[in-house]
Amino acid sequence: MLSNNLIDDLNQRGLISYITNKEALVKLMHNNCISLYCGFDPTEDSLHVGHLLPLLILKRFQIFGHKPIALIGGATSLIGDPSFKEKERLLQSNNIIDEWSLKIKKQISSFLDFHCFSNPALLLNNKKWFKKAGLLSFLRDIGKHFSINTMINKESVKQRIKRVDQGISFTEFSYNLLQAYDFFILNKKYGVSLQIGGSDQWGNISSGMHLINRISKKEAYGLTIPLLLKSNGVKFGKTESGTIWLDPKKTTPYKFYQFWKNIEDSHVYNFLKLFTFLDIKDINQREKNKFDKNQIFEDKSFLAKNITALVHGKKNLLAAERITKFLFFQKINDIKKSDLKQLKKDGIPSIEVNQIKDIQEALILSSLAKSRTQAKNMIESNAISINSKKIVDKNYIIHDNDKLFNQFTLLTRGKKHHCLIYWN
To answer: Which helix (H) or strand (E) holds 313?
Structure first.
């Protein structure tokens, strides 16, 4: 095992934004199996595509023989990380956080190997130690190692302090100490020497390294990952219809698959480096041949298939591919009733109704339009189809002959947005 190759590989893939004392870390990794961790605060009931990079980096370290720890922030999420947030998060109850923690625990479990013999992954919750930490002892034993001047000057805090309309509460301001304490406890009890996180986490990671050095007189390390932004500055994974979640109930495998199929061509080879385990040389060769017939299309399909299978499994990938083939390549006259029943099972966006007043109501119920005004505008711009037939009448009434096999109607907006209406 040549662990120094891992850092080189991460670097070549563009997965390192900043790394502390690289030479010492490489040497440590070369001679030892290290333990590292990444935290995931359950601020929602699901992870999203923005969490894929840290999860895959944990997986890469495990493949190279190191021990990854995924830490669920059951305690810290009760406070909320202010890092580069425009305003304070809405605080949630203990019960909700516990419920969300269980869901996220299940999602994380599918990425790492918790049963291998040599370096099984660990899944922990920081509630385990924070419920034992008293306020006075925490302030006395931990707080004394931090300077307010230094904390205020952290970029993530400075940005909020300068905002007169928002500012920052003491609750959020204390988050930095809580995450530092996580790193300290994991270092002390589990031998963790490296924390990874997004580049917006640098302030929190460096505080943990500082605390470990002050109390334990040990050197700890930090590695941050670049935040992925689209060309318009919006975080990668945000779309016009919302966030791309890992939970199949919030973002169906089909929609997840299509998200990757529709990324910009300019991102394909970068994303192959970031999100797949293909060898760098293979990816570079693919990029050289990208102007060959259909090469970039095939590489984009490979990316979509690879990530969908990783997140949702091969069965759901096949379902997503069936829906794609049906919606984009099959003629309406060739469709069988069994095809439509299977698509409904596979998870095509669908609604069940008894009756619908008109096309505008259908568009709203199917979430293809937010209002009747928007629905009218879509129809007038020739964006709406029923069973591949363009609808030009903004007051169109759906008739029985629009119901395939008296049971299904395929409603389409543009080329990429579909909903299957199932008539009870």
So the answer is: helix 295-329
